[in-house]
Structures are given as C-alpha cells and as structure tokens.
C-alpha cells in the first residue's frame, strides 16, 4: 500500500509543501541516476515500477534525468543460457570474445528495453541509448590496487560523447544508457556501471548523482541500519576505507563519487532502491533517507 494513502489531506499537502522549494531549486538541473540492485530483478512489477515512477516524477517537475543502468544478474543468466561459465577475477567479471557479444546484447537489448518499458508505463518518455554509441574506453589492465590484470573485454571509461544525451534531454526525453563502451578500434567492452554513471555526470556537469543499490547507504556497521551515515564529507572517505567501512562493492561507487564531486558534480547520494520512492525521499525532504556525499 502507498504510504500516502494513510495520510489525511492536510498531511498530504504538507508533504507537497516540503517538496516545493526543492522542486523550484532543481528545475532544469541535470540528475544522473545509477539504476542497479536486486530490485531490478524483483518478480513483483510494483517493486520494479517504483523506481520508474520516481524517474517519471523527476522529469515531470522539470528535472532533466539521465539513467545509467547495470545488469550483472541478467548477464550471468544470459551467459548460462549460452553455455558460457561466469568467471570472476578479483571481483571483476572476466569477459571473453565469446562472452562480450552476449553481454552487449543483454545490456543493450534486454535490460535497457525493460527499463524503458517500465518508465514508459509510468508515463515517462524514455529513450534507449546504447552505451557503445556514447561511451569510449580503454582496456582495463590493472586492478584497484594497480596490479596487472587480464580479464578480457572489460574497459574503463575514458570519454563520454554527450551530444546525443543532451539532444535527448532538450527534446524532453529521459536517456537510458547501458554500460557498454567501445575502444579506439570500435571493439565493445563491458564497463562498470557505477563508474560509467560518474563519468556521464561529470561530462554533463550534473547537479546530482544518485546511486541506487541494495543497502540504505553508507553505514558504520553494515549489520546495524541505525548506523547509517546521513552526510559524509569527502575528507573522511580515506579513513573509512582504511577501517574497512567502505569496502567491496561500495569501493567503485565511492571512488567514482569522489571523482565526480571534484569535477563539478554538486552532490552524490547513495539510496536503497528497495525502499519505496527512496529517490524522492532523499531529494525532496529535509532529512533524507540515504547517505549524501559532499565536498569539504
């Protein structure tokens, strides 16, 4: 049940009044949303449609939204169907010549189309943009610690061709970008969607970059939701990494978020995509519900 159904008319009006200054402030701003997490595969269409509704709402109040999506679980299923064993090296998916064609097809044609359909069902105006049309990359040859690594057709984003994205926004569409990039020879590569979203946000000079995942945000103790860090200055990130509080899947998110902030993005948010309307609660309320990363 929608939580608003439990509110009386005065309470509903209060919710809208609280949101008003944020709507006025952010109108015509660019928001980049990294769409990813287990909720993407939830069999409940209501759960999967909530994010689409939030994206449609943002666009309806004059915010220019760009979505960059993931799709790791869909890739694993597609590779399994094709008889290709999923292999990971230091947490990174090894992508062979045979596998990259499956990855490209899955992200561009399956996952991207599904997200477009969801947003269209929420009365939004999505426009599919295959990442290999706007993202350029180099082959990834080092892991996060700088050690040599060979994992095939996996790239790191080096450039974003923003013209197709900007044109889509100017024409009233919500671009939906897949995490596939091409190298100088035109060879497609699989790229980290978190990092791709950060590069898109940087090149577009986005006002907000929002990462959606399966956790409430950054927590001092992952087993204690009440330890959520509501606001985190960039200056405190190194210490949290040393303590292991920022680790594993959060590392590429936070590292790319820090780079985005240093390159002109105003704020970065980490929110739980499983929570109903988490984007709206984070952006349009005084308190928020996730973690906000800020320059300091």
Describe what you observe in this structure.
- It is a single chain.
- This protein has 296 residues and is of the alpha/beta class.
- Helices cover 39% and strands 21% of the residues.
- The protein has helices spanning 9-26, 45-60, 72-81, 97-121, 163-170, 193-204, 237-242, 250-262, 278-284, and strands at 30-35, 64-69, 88-89, 92-93, 126-129, 135-139, 154-160, 174-177, 180-182, 188-191, 208-213, 231-233, 267-272, 291-294.
- The chain has an 8-stranded mixed β-sheet with strand order 5-8-2-1-11-13-14-12, with helices on both faces.
- Helix 2 links the parallel strand 1 (30-35) and strand 2.
- It is globular, with a radius of gyration of 19 Å.
- The N and C termini lie far apart (40 Å).
